[in-house]
Amino acid sequence: MNKNSPAIVGIIVVVIIVLGGYAIFHKSSKTTSITSSSGQKNTAPAVNNAVLVTKTSSSLGSYLAEPNGDALYTYGGDSSGVSNVTGSLLASWPAYQDTGSTTGLPSGVSTIKRTDNGETQYTYNGRPLYTFVADSNGQVTGNGVSNFSVEKPTATSSSQSTTTAPSSSSSSTQSTTYSNPY
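Below the sequence we write its predicted C-alpha cells.
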C-alpha cells in the first residue's frame, strides 16, 4: 500500500461529507417557514409570480409593498388609471412596473400603459403604484412627501397567503403575499 493512500482516503471522505452537507442544507423546499419575534411559527407555500405583499408597522398599520419589501406609494395628482408622474419626479418615484404576465392578477391589482414611455405599470384599485428611491431595507420614508402616500390594502383577497417575518424591532412584522395564481 502506498504511503499517500490514507491521505487520499481522508480527502475523499472530507469531500463526500462537504457535498452531502451542501445537498442537505441547500435542498429546495415547497414551503417557507418563518418564525416571528414572538416565537409564532407560520408555514406558507412558496410564492411564484408574486406581485405585492402587505406589511404591517406600528406607526403606519398595514401597507402595500413589493415582494422584496419596498413600500408602494400612490400620487395625489394621479387620476384612476392615469399616471401623471413624469420627468424628474419619476426619477425619485419610479413606477412599479410589470415584468411578468399581466393575466391572473389578484383582486384589486391591474396594469396601465404609461403614456410617457409605453411601459406597463401596476395599479391597485386603479391607482398607479410607485416606489421611493430614498427607501432602503424596508424603510418607509416617503409617506407624505411630495403628495405621495403609502398605499393601504383594502379587503383581503382569496388568492393570498400570510407569512410572519422577523422584525428588527421588538414587534413582529406581518406580511401578506398577493400572488398570480397561474
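The mean pLDDT is 72.
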